[in-house]
């Protein structure tokens, strides 16, 4: 499925020319803090993502391998990437134009979910080390 998306102010617009993975909710501490809740992300092949103009796209290198992409104007969280898996990029699901045709299929790092949040027990949940390597957020 091809898709289009953008940040809140429209300065960063993008297109996806390939299939998107279903959405995974990542509750790890860094994703919670960067989004203000949890990262609900889909993913695709890095080469299938076309960004119209990267002038307003800023990358925050959280570690040597993990980075979050956001709009430097409005602050919207847009992307997540891991240098150990350069062939895949995660896309914040809320930035996609609707309808997306996607469903939420999993939650990861569920033990890190904030105490105010109620997890959806109807989707597969994994935690900690068992979530590593899933490339789901």
Give short descriptive properties of this protein.
single chain; 137 residues; mainly beta; Metal Binding Protein, Guanine Nucleotide Exchange Factor, Chain A; eight-stranded mixed β-sheet; three-stranded antiparallel β-sheet; 37% strand; globular; disordered C terminus
Question: Can you tell me about this structure?
Answer:
This protein has 137 residues and is mainly beta. It has one domain (3-131): Metal Binding Protein, Guanine Nucleotide Exchange Factor, Chain A (Beta Complex), CATH 2.170.150. Helices cover 5% and strands 37% of the residues. The strands form two sheets. Strands 6-7-8-9-4-3-10-11 form an eight-stranded mixed beta sheet. The longest helix is centred in the first third of the chain and has 7 residues, at 29-35. The relative contact order is 0.26.
Quaternary structure type:
single chain
**CATH topology grouping:** Metal Binding Protein, Guanine Nucleotide Exchange Factor, Chain A
Q: Radius of gyration, Cα only, in angstroms?
A: 14 Å
Helix fraction by DSSP (H/I, runs of at least 4): under 10%
**Low-confidence runs (pLDDT<50, min 5 residues)?**
132-137
Distance between the termini: 19 Å
Percent range for β-strand residues: 35-45%
The CATH class is identified as Mainly Beta
Number of strands: 11
Number of continuous helical runs: 1
Query: How many structural domains are formed by the residues?
Result: 1
Decide which structural class fits the backbone: mainly beta
* SSE arrangement, N to C: EEEHEEEEEEEE
What CATH architecture would you give? Beta Complex
Mean pLDDT: 91
Strand order of the largest sheet: 6-7-8-9-4-3-10-11
Shape: globular
């Amino acid at each position: 499925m091809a898709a289009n998306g953008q940040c809140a102010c429209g300065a960063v617009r993008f297109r996806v020319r390939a299939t998107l993975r279903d959405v995974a909710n990542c509750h790890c501490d860094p994703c919670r803090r960067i989004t203000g809740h949890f990262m609900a992300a889909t993913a695709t092949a890095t080469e299938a993502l076309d960004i119209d103009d990267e002038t307003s796209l800023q990358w925050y290198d959280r570690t040597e391998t993990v980075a979050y992409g956001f709009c430097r104007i409005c602050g919207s969280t847009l992307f997540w990437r891991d240098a150990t898996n350069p062939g895949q990029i995660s896309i914040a699901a809320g930035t996609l134009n609707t309808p997306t045709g996607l469903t939420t299929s999993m939650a990861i790092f569920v033990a890190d979910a904030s105490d105010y949040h109620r997890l959806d027990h109807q989707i597969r949940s994994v935690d900690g080390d068992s979530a590593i390597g899933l490339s789901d957020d």
